[in-house]
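Postdoc handover notes: sequence design on the structure in folder B. Input tokens:
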């Protein structure tokens, strides 16, 4: 079916919205594609923020996917740079070959980067995910290890019969003691509510394939090999990939280039256009209404098809005539978790046995460090030097850190003035022994609304809401906030791809879109 005379309105210029725009324009030259973005930035939470020449990746974005389509799509936009024709990415004891270009554009390419994420707890570093090895035993001590194993055995012998919450989900798989040690406090730091109030569905989506039984088997096998030698090393299941692709100047570089291509193919991007209404006639959206903040006026955009990445709570509230009272109530009860990143530029980290050798700034090797310490609010720490050296203005002599705080709009953290928050964040790094305050050079505070759709509030009634919204034949919900689902960047792109295919084929069945990020095939770990 030709769509060249139809008007497609896309709400949001993040990965899902821009993927949809480019795929539509590639498939149907001359199609009318309009992208409405409420901010002045490209990339949504996958944008790159430039502060005094030091670039911040909000939340950390690895460019790796189990989808061949996504991997190829990224490399069409920004090729991987390398010395030969091929590079090999290793992950989960597997390898994946990717084409590389030695002569790639000096500015526009992707780097092949090593991955290391660890947990910082009890002022010590643990493997992420936690592994049953000598480092873990030393850090936790034999008494706590014994309690963890006994608790795990109890959970396997007498599991909770009806998993109603995330707490039930984790205890059944790891035992109460490990849940209390490594899961409970950090999860509640992230979400701001008790684990008993979070749907078990979140665990089913985000915690895959980790097994204490297999960890114990692997540890025993390693001990046997160390003592007696011989034997084949068994493959270890892990949720880590050991290498990934990464744009030279951060994730925003990918989406800025995509936006350029959208414009070159005839698409229109409107910034500072916040969508506040969707007019419908029966089961079809006929127009999208947005406020142009720069001109201070409302504008109606006629629409034959609409692809939305805006938060569902706001989307449903803006539909006129409104959906039924039940759908409105459920949508109004959807909740979100907000996010603050503090960029802290330091001369050096405090020296430790984990510091990389031959570095004047005592650099740690990690991309991410999950801060499990109970005496600080800090949730996660990024070391931007290790994502790409080009993110740091003076990479040789400074360390550029991203301190990540999970909060809710209006709470004490969110309302704290930026100068106070910056001082507070520095003090927390000093408190847990990672820096000396005298080494702090500069920094900035960035707030991100609705970074994480929450699996509590009215979420347990979400299927009823979805059924109502899906009855609007020409409205397609994609992306993280669009679907109120904890999608990764590649999942968001795949939902956009399927929405485009539906539009091109005249198919209003959205089941395949909602299947993304549900089945194991979409996850790194299995």
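Designed sequence:
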């Amino acid at each position: 079916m030709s769509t060249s005379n139809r008007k497609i309105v896309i709400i949001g210029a993040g990965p899902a919205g821009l993927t949809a725009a480019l795929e539509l324009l590639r498939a149907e030259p001359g199609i009318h594609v309009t992208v409405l973005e409420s901010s002045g930035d490209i990339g949504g939470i996958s944008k790159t923020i430039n502060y005094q020449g030091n670039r911040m990746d909000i939340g950390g974005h690895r460019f790796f996917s189990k989808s061949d389509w996504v991997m190829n799509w990224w490399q069409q936009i920004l090729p991987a740079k390398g010395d030969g024709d091929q590079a090999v990415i290793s992950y989960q004891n597997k390898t994946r070959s990717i084409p590389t270009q030695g002569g790639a554009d000096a500015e526009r390419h992707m780097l092949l980067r090593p991955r290391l994420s660890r947990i910082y707890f009890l002022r010590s570093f643990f493997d992420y995910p936690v592994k049953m090895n000598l480092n873990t035993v030393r850090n936790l001590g034999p008494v706590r290890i014994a309690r963890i194993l006994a608790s795990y055995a109890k959970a396997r012998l007498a599991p909770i019969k009806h998993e109603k919450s995330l707490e039930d989900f984790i205890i059944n798989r790891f035992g109460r003691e490990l849940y209390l040690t490594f899961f409970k406090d950090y999860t509640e730091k992230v979400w701001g509510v008790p684990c008993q109030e979070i749907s078990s569905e979140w665990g089913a989506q985000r915690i895959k394939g980790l097994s204490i039984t297999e960890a114990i088997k692997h540890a025993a096998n390693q001990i046997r090999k160390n003592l007696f030698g011989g034997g084949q090393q068994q493959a270890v299941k892990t949720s880590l990939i050991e290498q990934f692709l990464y744009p030279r100047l951060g994730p925003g570089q990918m989406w800025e280039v995509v936006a350029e291509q959208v414009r070159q193919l005839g698409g229109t991007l409107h910034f500072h256009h916040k969508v506040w209404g969707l007019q419908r006639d029966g089961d079809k959206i006929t127009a999208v209404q947005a406020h142009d903040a720069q001109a201070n006026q409302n504008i109606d955009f006629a629409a034959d098809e609409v692809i939305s990445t805006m938060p569902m709570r706001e989307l449903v509230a803006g539909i006129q005539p409104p959906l039924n009272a039940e759908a409105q109530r459920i949508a109004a009860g959807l909740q979100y978790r907000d996010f603050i990143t503090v960029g802290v530029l330091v001369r050096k980290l405090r020296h430790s046995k984990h510091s990389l050798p031959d570095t004047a700034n005592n650099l740690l090797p990690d991309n991410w460090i999950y801060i499990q310490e109970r005496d600080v609010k800090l949730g996660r720490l990024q070391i931007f030097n290790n994502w790409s050296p080009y993110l740091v203005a003076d990479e040789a002599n400074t360390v550029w850190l991203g301190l990540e705080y999970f909060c809710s709009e209006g709470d004490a953290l969110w309302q704290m003035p930026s100068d106070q928050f910056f001082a507070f964040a520095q003090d927390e790094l000093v408190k847990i022994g990672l820096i000396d305050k005298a080494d702090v050079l500069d920094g900035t505070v960035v707030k991100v609304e609705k970074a994480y759709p929450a699996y509590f509030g009215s979420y347990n009634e979400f299927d009823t809401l979805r059924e109502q919204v899906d009855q609007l034949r020409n409205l397609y919900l994609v992306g993280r906030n669009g679907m109120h689902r904890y999608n990764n960047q590649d999942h968001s792109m795949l939902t956009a791809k399927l929405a485009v295919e539906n539009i091109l084929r005249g198919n209003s069945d959205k089941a395949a879109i909602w299947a993304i990020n549900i089945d194991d095939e979409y996850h790194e770990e299995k």
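Context for whoever picks this up: The chain has three domains: 7-40+271-334+458-521, 48-62+336-453, 129-228. Don't rerun without checking with the PI first.
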